[in-house]
Amino acid sequence: MPANALAPRPRDAQREGDENRIQEYLARFGAASPSPAPQPQIDQHDTDGVWSRIKFDLKPDDLVAYLDQYIVRQEEAKAVLATKICTHFNRAKYLSRLQNDDPSDGVGMIKNNILLIGPTGVGKTYMIKLIADKLGVPFVKADATKFSETGYVGGDVEDLIRDLVREAEDDIELAQFGIVYLDEVDKIAGTKGLLGPDVSRSGVQRALLKPMEETEVDLKVAHDPISQIQAIEQYRKTGRAERRLVNTRHILFIMSGAFGELAEVIRRRRNKAQLGFSSQMRAQLDDQAILHEVTGADLVEFGFETEFVGRLPVTVVLDKLEADDLHQILRNPNNPVIISKKRDFAAYGIELRFEDEALRKLAEEAATLGTGARALVSVCERVCLPFERHLPSSDVRRLVITPECVDNPGQELQIVLGAPHEQEPRFEAAGQFERAQLMHMIDRRQAMYAQRLQSPLTPARMALIADEFHRVGLSMERAFRNVLDRLDQVRDFALGFSQKYGITISFSEDARVAILAGAAAEGVAVDEYLKRLSTILEPGLKLARDRTGVDAYELPRQAIFDTDAYLRQVFEEHFSQTLGAKN
Q1: Cα Rg for the chain, rounded, in angstroms?
Q2: pLDDT in the model for residue 523
Q3: What is the b/e burial string over 182-210, where b = at least 16 CB atoms within 10 angstroms of the residue's CB?
Q4: For the residues 57-81, what does the mean pLDDT come to?
Q5: What letter would DSSP give residue 240?
Q6: Distance from C-alpha of 378 to C-alpha of 409, rounded to nearest angstrom
Q7: How many whole angstroms separate alpha carbon 255 and alpha carbon 140?
Q8: CA distance 475 to 480
Q9: pTM of the full predicted structure?
């Protein structure tokens, strides 16, 4: 028997893969019901329902402020993206609530589809991921190079829309307000001089034309077993075959690419319009500067179809990052490069910090590699790898990366292993610097949370947010929200206590901070901490009310940590006032 006689044939392997996908679908959404009774259907015109699920209420300034916390430079890109994306969704929300039955309404509407142009490592993909996370709408990312015109070689562009439905957990209405992000779109520019159909380049552009504007995509496809199962299930529930369609009218397309040769296209076009000395001066402009002069005609000359360019009305050019920009990225408490390395060492129980001068050296080295922020990962790995290998097997539990570590990591490793305590002063100083950077960032975020804050952030509240950021290893956004949510729990507890026991209580600022700090120190949830506090406060405050006749108290910090001493003070003050009144 041949050695490969038992190997699965391609058709068998495909069938097995299809069966696995079917089982996964049935486990997620449930098997088709054998009951022939019609089931209630979701009203596809329930626009209030979909917007209650999306909960999109951002203004452009809100989104710019959010991006400022993560993205260095790129002011134009942040402003344009925030404005056009917010306008797109606010307009979609407005139109969906008009409930206009005019069939011509919306015909010819231009969507704010966006093209991002910039070299590698400037934050194009990172920025879009941040926006998608903030918006809370279904989001799909793919590389344009994976598709072909009809899908017989590579993927079908309509699969992007089907992926949106999956991201929306089969909620078609929600998927119709999603975002599709295509990277490496410059790779599908047409090839000049090619004989025959170009299915992987110009063909993909043509295939994208309809979904980028408005079309209806059928979720049922012959090669997808899950869509076949869904069609069967729909038929068993309703007794009739129905097409499940997704309208792309409000689906936003964002595309990006490096466009390495586009600068030369622009330069040729400008030189044709200028003669003599001015032409030579323009030829001396660097690629980054000349990209800002891009026009639709340049994109057509680059290899894009005219109709394709017309469906991308918004073009944004991102700037190349210099050494100073990379240094600011590393100093940012939100940057994923340093956070990732800290988590790598934290997995071994080692606390990692960086001196600012070391960050500057890392940024300067990364700038020489020419790949933007992507190079930061490489240079950090070069420096940290020897320590990451050897320190877990040692007794060292605190490490600070110094400029000396960047210059000669192997030599510094031996020094750290031989005399780990010599790093302590520099470790503490680096921690103070990091804390100062963090507090500065927290202070700048007050405007974003003005409605929930109700009052300016106190240093104590800022310290709580900083502790949450360090202790749990969350993003700054999540740390901020966690602290505000817990402060809301304290407020709600005071209201509930007043309603339940007929004793009005409130907490001073120091008391609120003390509750959150106490819960964090004990490693318990705030509501659990408050329940325990209630069992102590309730009998004591009832006694105080009965003895003094006072039924409203603003509880200070002392009432949290030493309730007995606080109640004694209440009684003493009451009796002192009573005796003073009698005398």
Answers
A1: 31
A2: 84
A3: bbebbebbbeeeeeeebbbbbbbbebbee
A4: 89
A5: S
A6: 14
A7: 12
A8: 9
A9: 0.76
